[in-house]
UniProtKB/TrEMBL annotation:
Enzyme type, top EC level: hydrolase
Domain of life: Bacteria
Stretches that traverse the bilayer: none
Gene from which this protein is expressed: codA_1
Listed name of the protein: Cytosine deaminase
Biological classification of the source: Bacteria, Pseudomonadati, Pseudomonadota, Alphaproteobacteria, Rhodobacterales
Organism from which the protein derives: Roseisalinus antarcticus
Record keywords, A-Z: Hydrolase, Metal-binding
A GO biological process held by the record: cytosine catabolic process
Family annotation (Pfam families): Amidohydro_3
Alphabetized GO MF terms: cytosine deaminase activity; isoguanine deaminase activity; metal ion binding
Domain Amidohydrolase: 40-399
EC number: 3.5.4.1
């Protein structure tokens, strides 16, 4: 006797007609034609059943603040940082908590159940850290939130940032962040990477830095982060976020850099939506895309997880909480259009990011947590193409969100009377 059986699901690995049984909040069986009783039986109708989406790079202290105190006119990263600096002194814990909780509602409705958020610790009041720690506790029953101590204005550049970052870690933030390309000089950037890796090593914490979010082909902070990872014995615990400069670097240099990153067991977290928008701003034409070298990193065995970075904030006036939007942009900007590449991008918004965040019990395997999303699509490639409705979002076997299927009614003479979008994919398009 099970608590729940989802019948006739398609799994991301291509298995069809699978029955997935849940007992005690965990996946207890996966097999076709399961002969068993359950408290509840749901017909998955052949739709894709996936583990939940995971966002390994986000800013929950800034989300949903678009327009406060004004809009970003130039659209650049630097005006976004300046605008956030104007907003920061006016932030209150109550407003931060309310915006973050509202965003988490949206995230859950999109099947996004784990988020790593950078938290700006530049303001010595640390109201952001206080608020996000409260949010981490309040959403814990439905969303796993990891918090990175992020010195937005520069670890050495901003007065008081060193002490504030230490204090925020003492308060309970989970991960050491950084922003070496925003320090005053390349040397200061390198020193900040070394100092922050030392702190992580001393405290036994992971590292996740904004690293080389620039179009500068000569920026060298990715190399420094890899080298300091090895020097401090942090292999497997360090992620580099953005890595945009790798787009502009000389190919010979990258042929040396990627193996160094692999040696350091670094993870890469590109943010395609925001970087296609922010980078290349000093170019006329050709205009660079500013997205790091995703297929080459994947080919080297480096874990690549895709993040949203921003939703409706000073840096990005778009975003929807949908990680399939992120995969969709990555697919186009990197030209990863083959079936195998689409599947790799689906992994980059699910299992890869779960691995980077160290999520326990994640996955569609017997014994894993019964955390699952039923999508109105037939396979991962179609999920990226359609960014379809999340018919069901489950955590520990409990339904957190439901969305009705998108079906359009037609009144066309001699034509079908309805359109169900997944039906339109040619069956041999694998
Ligand atoms: Zn970021």
């Amino acid at each position: 006797m099970f608590d729940l059986i989802l019948r006739d699901a398609t799994l991301p690995d291509g298995r069809t007609g699978q029955d997935v049984a849940v007992r005690g909040g965990k996946i207890a069986a996966i097999e076709p034609g399961l002969e068993a009783e359950a408290g509840e039986v749901i017909d998955a109708g052949g739709h894709l059943l996936s583990p939940p989406f995971v966002d390994p790079h986000f800013h929950m202290d800034a989300t949903l603040s678009l327009g406060l105190p004004r809009m970003n006119v130039s659209g650049t990263l630097l005006e976004g940082i300046a605008l956030w600096g104007e907003l920061r002194p006016t932030l209150t814990r109550e407003a931060l908590v309310e915006r973050a909780l509202r965003y988490c509602d949206l995230a859950v409705s999109k099947g996004l159940l784990a988020v790593r958020s950078h938290v700006d610790v530049s303001d010595p009041r640390l109201v952001t850290a206080e608020a996000l720690i409260e949010v981490r506790e309040r959403v814990a029953p439905y969303l796993e939130l990891q918090l990175v101590a992020f010195p937005q204005d520069g670890y050495f550049r901003a007065a008081g940032a060193e002490a504030a970052l230490t204090r925020s870690l003492d308060m309970g933030l989970d991960i050491v962040g950084g922003i070496p390309h925003f320090e005053r000089t390349m040397e200061d950037g390198a020193r900040s990477v070394a100092a922050l890796c030392r702190i992580a090593a001393d405290r036994g914490l992971p590292v996740d830095m904004h690293c080389d979010e620039t179009d500068d082909p000569l920026s060298r902070h990715v190399e420094t982060l890899a080298a300091e990872t090895i020097r401090h014995g942090l292999q497997g615990r360090v992620a580099g976020s953005h890595l945009s400069s790798m787009h502009s670097m000389d190919n010979y240099y990258v042929s040396k850099l990627i193996p160094l990153m692999a040696e350091a067991q670094m993870a890469a977290i590109p943010n395609p939506l925001i970087n296609i928008m922010l980078q290349g701003r000093h170019d006329t034409y050709p205009k660079r895309r500013g997205l790091t070298r995703i297929p080459e990193l994947m080919a080297a065995g480096i874990p690549v997880g895709l993040g949203q970075d921003c939703v409706l904030d000073p840096w990005y006036s778009m975003g929807s909480g949908d990680l399939l939007d992120v995969a969709h942009m990555a697919l186009h900007a990197t030209q990863m259009g083959s079936g195998v590449e689409k599947r790799a991008l689906f992994d980059a918004v699910t299992v890869n990011s779960a691995r980077i965040m160290g999520l326990e019990g994640y996955g569609l395997e017997v014994g894993c947590h019964a955390d699952m999303v039923l999508l109105q699509a037939r396979d991962p490639a179609e999920a990226i193409r359609l960014r379809p409705n999340r018919l069901l979002v489950l955590r520990r076997g409990r339904v957190l969100a439901e969305t009705a299927p998108e079906v359009s009614r037609l009144t066309l003479e001699g034509r079908p009377d309805s359109v169900d979008p997944p039906d339109y994919a040619p069956r041999n398009a694998i």
